[in-house]
Amino acid sequence: MSYRHVVGPRTFVFSDLAELMAKATPPRSGDRLAGLAAESAEECVAARWCLAEVPLAEILARPLIPYEADDVTRLILDTHDAAAFARIGHLTVGDFREFLLTAPSETLAAIAPGVTPEIAAAVSKIMRNQDLILVARKARVVTRLRNTIGLPGTMAVRLQPNHPSDDPAGIAAAILDGLAYGCGDACIGINPVSDSVQGLAGLLHLLSETIERFDIPTQGCVLTHITTTLEAMNRGVPVDLVFQSIAGTQAANASFGVTLPLLREAHEAALGQRRGTLGDNVMYFETGQGSALSANAHHGIDQQTLEARTYAVARAFRPLLVNTVVGFIGPEYLYDGKEIIRAGLEDHFCGKLMGVPLGVDVCYTNHAEADQDDMDTLLTLLGTAGVTYVMGIPGADDVMLNYQSTSFHDQLYLREVTGLKRAPEFAAWLARMGLTDADGALRPGGGAPLLSGIAA
């Protein structure tokens, strides 16, 4: 089925829904690399006008990747909530945008199970940045394991104490530094250098012992491949969160060495660990625009729509945390600061709209046309949009992964500007430890209790 839109004397024709959505996407290098992007600004605007007139029911009825060819498509359609969709099924994409701008938080929560990733992506393509911020701010997704993440007026931080040789002393020093800055309520998450079960076990024991020793209401995670984590659980190693990078097509997930049945197996195993005290959200997923294209597994679909499909995979496993590592893949997919900022807002909006606890690693690689000023801008916009969590990295420079992100002190800036609080259980712990005052502000010299505890 083709689509067309007339602008003055010119008629723009789009061969199918996939082409229409691709050409309606704001410019980005990945779509240009794949030969999917609009050839001009005029064609992009024409595609957006045309997309705005497409009924949501038509998008639901026309899968971009055939049902029989892709297990992510099957997951999306087999788990679709028809009752939730009935509240919006009569709308066009343009009508849906208007609906979202005025809908209260309770309505957004009610329709989330009925919003497919293709619908979320479609409406995001015709929205301004301020639209994405406004709607995402109203969409709240609350998850729990040992604390409560995603409550209104809060923002958590993943403490990321990576080390280029997995040195326990270096990791412990970074953990101490991050806790002293009030970071760590999302989780304390280490990207390991080694993928061996023995190395993973040592890091997981380090995290578990630190959390238990200081009675910290948070969770630890070592971001290794899911099969390694499964083997660690089989050996009795303490695992709070199971991590995995995921994508929006079956073939892209296969490039990561992961399948939906494998995710189900790990989810059940993690639930069996019974590590939560407040809830049972035990999964942590990372995503990023361009992963399917880099694996040659994109099926001719634009990278932002495929990113939204990733959130359908995440949603099926009730994760504690999901984050888009927005600028990590590189300038081949998001060329500069403008493209990274737009992608970060899109990802956050689509994830929240679908009921996923979306955080953002506000980041870039050193060969991208971006700098820390761009990250400051995106961080501030995401704070206004009610982002679930961001990253806390020593000096904003990950010395193991070699990319630029956000630092421990960046979250202090954002909290002062926006008034965002920490997860309530973690905030109470910081106050008990003398690290913060009653208002959540850091106390001078507040790290002394942690230092004395480690010395003991």
Give your account of this protein's structure.
There is one protein chain. This protein is of the alpha/beta class and 456 residues long. It is 47% helix and 11% strand. The protein is built from 22 helices and 14 strands. It has helices at 17-24, 29-33, 41-52, 56-61, 71-78, 82-85, 93-102, 105-111, 117-125, 129-138, 168-180, 197-213, 226-234, 250-255, 260-273, 291-294, 303-315, 337-353, 372-384, 408-418, 424-432, 448-455; strands spanning 3-7, 10-14, 143-144, 148-149, 156-159, 187-190, 220-222, 242-245, 283-287, 321-325, 358-361, 389-392, 397-398, 403-404. The strands form 5 sheets. It has a 4-stranded parallel beta sheet with strand order 7-6-5-12. Strand 13 (397-398) and strand 14 form a beta hairpin. Helix 7 (93-102) crosses helix 9. It is globular. The model has no long low-confidence stretch (mean pLDDT 96).
